[in-house]
Design brief:
Blueprint lengths: L1 E11 L7 H11 L3 E5 L10 H4 L4 E8 L2 E9 L9 E2 L9 E6 L2 E7 L7 H21 L2 E7 L23 H11 L3 E3 H5 L26 E6 H4 L2 E3 L14 E10 L15
Parallel strand pairs: 1-2, 7-8
Antiparallel strand pairs: 1-12, 2-4, 3-4, 5-6, 6-7, 8-10, 9-10, 11-12
């Protein structure tokens, strides 16, 4: 058992092919230990070669042509051997992939928007709650990263954007998100910055809403309590990229890890 710092980043890139150069530049600058990407909108064979097997990272791509999909990059500095990827049973439309890094399971999650099929969104959130509960029951550490497509509270929506019956702000969605957090998880950004009423990660792409910071907070790092207690920073990088979402980067000062020696095997579902 050893203790080491860990940096985990998440970003809904809204198309990996459109944002290839931005993702490369951002990763080169930030050098996260784990990168969770959402809405890659590409099958593995469509991912640009420079990102498909990025130097210094184990890379996983789980998507389909033109829609949804998630990615994971794990630094070889924290995982000398390739960790296996898993998909929970509720892996709907290529929306979740998870890896184990030194005893901590880190999942890249893209919750359905709900606009076309709201019941599917609620089923996904409910299943994610069961998934989180299983980790707590087993005493295992979990990090859920990604675009949850729910603003936790009114504080997470600019006053000009608050709409009580808007999908993403509905009481039943928020209740499910809180239930997930009740499974021993912490909303890292909010725990470190509880009074910030301008903490947003998504802005509609019109009327200069991003420049005016009139947005919603939809992208999160939810970490197990023990891990979250060592969090030192979790900023929203609102000046990065041209996606309608901004990256969120969580830094942890002291993470208890175990050495991982099992040989990983590529799984199906376009993971490479």
């Amino acid at each position: 058992m050893s203790r080491t710092p860990l940096k985990i980043a998440t970003w809904n890139v809204n198309g990996i092919r459109a944002r290839q150069a931005q993702v490369q530049e951002w990763m080169a600058r930030e050098r996260p230990d784990v990168v969770c990407l959402q809405e890659i909108k590409a099958a593995a064979d469509q991912v640009p070669a420079a990102l498909y097997a990025m130097e210094g990272y184990w890379c996983y791509w789980h998507g389909g042509k033109g829609y949804s999909g998630v990615g994971l990059h794990v630094s070889k500095a924290v995982a000398p051997e390739r960790p296996p990827v898993t998909h929970p049973d509720f892996n709907y439309e290529n929306r979740i992939a998870a890896v184990d890094v030194g005893g901590v399971t880190i999942a890249s999650v893209y919750v359905p928007n709900g606009g076309k099929d709201f019941p599917a969104k609620m089923r996904f959130l409910d299943a994610m709650d069961t998934y989180a509960a299983s980790f707590r029951a087993g005493g295992r550490q979990l990090v859920l990263c990604g675009d949850m497509n729910v603003a936790r509270t009114d504080q997470d929506v600019h006053p000009k954007e608050r709409k009580p019956r808007a999908i993403g702000q509905l009481p039943e969605e928020r209740a499910l998100l809180e239930r997930i957090l009740s499974r021993g998880l912490v909303d890292v950004a909010r725990s470190l910055d509880p009074d910030n009423d301008g903490l947003f990660t998504w802005w509609a792409p019109w009327r200069n809403l991003r420049q005016r910071n009139i947005g919603w907070r939809l992208d999160y790092v939810f970490a197990s309590t023990a891990l979250a207690s060592s969090a030192t920073a979790c900023p929203v990088q609102s000046d990065v990229g041209t996606s309608d979402h901004a990256p969120v980067v969580a830094a942890f000062s002291e993470v208890a890890t175990t050495d991982y020696h099992e040989d990983a095997k590529d799984t199906k579902n376009n993971l490479h």
